[in-house]
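About this split. The held-out portion is used to measure sequence recovery: a designer receives only the structure tokens and must propose an amino acid at every position. Recovery is the fraction of positions where the proposal matches the reference. Here is one held-out target exactly as it appears in the evaluation file.
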């Protein structure tokens, strides 16, 4: 389903379901990426299913990606990337609070983002036969808790190159490189009453909130990656009159509430597995 970037609030997308698993004859989820009247391409999820390890961890697997259309070509120097934020009842790092919203990045020492980049997967882009910009995640937690709720918000962004294109993904303090947030998709999983990880359905497409993203960057303790004027989060598309997003207050709180609440989990009774 297409959605202009200026439309506020949560918008349900067209979701093609073959159960909460790998697609059967088509994607689990597919959405046209559109900013204003400009079609950028298509985002799809092919796999969205439990991938727990009995007796060790519970979690899911999600895979898909973005394919640009021929209707829009980013200006020279701009490249597509993923930024993902996360809000869970069991945070991954000690400085995070349950229900807070954080940039989903592997932290080398618990605080500093691996490779000094805010982009999901270190910003490494290796096209696959299916996608020009693939995406995959396998979030999990150690077994033990009786309950868990988690929501991940994946944003497609266009990023401006820095002075040195060889370090495109790394933060460059003071460079004020532009990040245009184009589209955002919320997915996640919970534990059901049998202790099984259950993907949340439907996947949601929500209106991008650059103000909230800028605030999440500003609040991150890794100032070298997310602060020091390395980035300026913008709305719209490069080449149009830019809109610089100020650091927010109320909009960040609203985004946190959406991510924490997510979508009611699909409840499916399953027999307990043998350890």
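Reference sequence for scoring:
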């Amino acid at each position: 389903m297409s959605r202009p970037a200026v439309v506020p609030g949560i918008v349900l997308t067209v979701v093609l379901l073959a159960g909460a698993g790998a697609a059967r004859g088509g994607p689990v989820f597919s959405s046209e990426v559109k900013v204003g009247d400009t079609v950028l391409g298509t985002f799809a999820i092919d796999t969205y299913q439990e991938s727990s390890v009995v007796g060790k961890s519970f979690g899911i697997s999600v895979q898909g990606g973005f394919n640009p259309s021929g209707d829009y070509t980013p200006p020279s120097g701009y490249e597509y990337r993923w930024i993902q934020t996360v809000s869970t009842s069991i945070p991954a790092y000690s400085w995070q609070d349950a229900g807070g919203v954080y940039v989903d990045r592997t932290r080398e020492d618990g605080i500093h983002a691996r490779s000094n980049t805010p982009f999901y997967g270190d910003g490494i882009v290796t096209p696959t036969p299916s996608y020009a910009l693939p995406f995959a995640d396998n979030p999990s937690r150690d077994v033990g808790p009786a309950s868990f709720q988690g929501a991940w918000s994946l944003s497609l962004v266009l990023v401006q190159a820095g002075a040195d294109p060889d370090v495109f993904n790394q933060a460059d303090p003071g460079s004020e490189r532009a990040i245009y947030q184009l589209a955002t998709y919320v997915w996640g999983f919970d534990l059901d009453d049998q202790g099984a990880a259950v993907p949340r359905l439907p996947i949601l497409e929500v209106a991008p909130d650059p103000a909230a993203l800028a605030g999440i960057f500003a609040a991150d303790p890794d100032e070298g990656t997310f602060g020091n004027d390395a980035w300026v989060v913008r709305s719209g598309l490069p080449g149009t009159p830019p809109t610089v997003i100020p650091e927010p207050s109320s909009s960040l709180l609203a985004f946190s509430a959406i991510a924490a609440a997510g979508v009611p989990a699909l409840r499916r009774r399953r027999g307990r597995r043998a350890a």
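Annotator remark: The radius of gyration is 18 Å.
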